[in-house]
Amino acid sequence: MDKIFASPSRYVQGENALKRSPAYLKELGQKVLIITDEMVWKIVGATLAEDLTNQQFEVAKEIFQGESSLKEIERMTMTAKDASVEVVIGLGGGKAIDGAKAVSNQLNTKLAIFPTSASTDAPTSAISVVYSEEGHFEKYLHYQKNPDLVLLDTAVISQAPVRLLKSGIADGMATWIEAEAVLQKNGENLLGGRQSLAALAIAEKCQQVLFDSGFAAVAANEAKVVTEALDAVIEANTLLSGIGFESGGLGAAHAIHNGFSAIAGNIHQLTHGEKVAYGTLVQLFLENRPTNEIDKYIAFYQKLGLPTTLEEMYLAKATEEELLKIGELATSLSDTIQQMPFEITAKEIAAALKAVDLYVKKFANQ
């Protein structure tokens, strides 16, 4: 099996970078389609469109309807086809970005991703997560190439809700834990190849940055200012975690996140990263990590206000049947839990979901 490493062609990060985006986009094409949601359009989308128009770009927009389903992807693809676009720009959060990737892939256009928060590691990858119209996880879509341009305006991101940055930190914290599990199995990354030394180094560096600078970055975000700590964490959440998960591989934590979509309820008020945080703790339990190591992650998550109990996951009243449904979807043969170095059953996941909860309540950090 070959080692495979992937990354975006160009990554740009800096204060007021959106103002400079026309210079980078000119290398890709002049006819652009901005895919975004209503809120992001009002905050930065309309200004971006005006700046591009002033630079002789032909600009169309498409308002993303909220769920990266196959139906929504097809609807947006028709708009892009009618506009004969050369570049698709995904502007906003994770699901809008995933939709933009899918549209660009179907029409074979250039792809630019402009995140407005550092909430997930989706921007740099050649992967979209597809959900049903009801919000249930369905599958991953894999593409032949990564985005041509990923551009992050740290001034814009500093104004985003703090909860989104914390969510991105939680998502990024899973990167090295899952890549390490894939390493132990000598398994496959999300590119269908072996891990490179570069991917492993990046995944490990991601965790180090988050432990070292996470709290200071959150403080900067709360103050709505850009600092070195916030700049570092934005890069860790986006570039380091993005390359780390795709080229390093995923394990149980993200599969358990996907498993949560098997049940209905208030759990879906949580962000992607908040669900991944609990999934990460479950993976650590499944691996039977030493309790002092597990305590380090629990303390970090709790200080950030991330969920570490079933009550905080809105699962305090979940039935055994519901926990098994989570486990059954998480252990699907098509999900990344198959890259863990040992077999895991739905019953074991249900047990670990409960064990993490009880451990946190009774023993953690005492």
Automatic annotation (TrEMBL):
It comes from the Bacteria. The keyword NAD applies. It is an enzyme of class 1 (oxidoreductase). Residues 8-154 form the Alcohol dehydrogenase iron-type/glycerol dehydrogenase GldA domain. It catalyses: glycerol + NAD(+) = dihydroxyacetone + NADH + H(+). Keywords: Metal-binding, NAD, Oxidoreductase. Its EC number is 1.1.1.6. The keyword Plastid does not apply. Pathway: Polyol metabolism; glycerol fermentation; glycerone phosphate from glycerol (oxidative route): step 1/2. Pfam families: Fe-ADH. InterPro entries: ADH_Fe/GldA (IPR001670), Glycerol_DH (IPR016205). Coiled coil: none annotated. PANTHER family: GLYCEROL DEHYDROGENASE, GLYCEROL DEHYDROGENASE 1. NCBIfam families: PRK09423.1 (NF006941). This is Glycerol dehydrogenase.
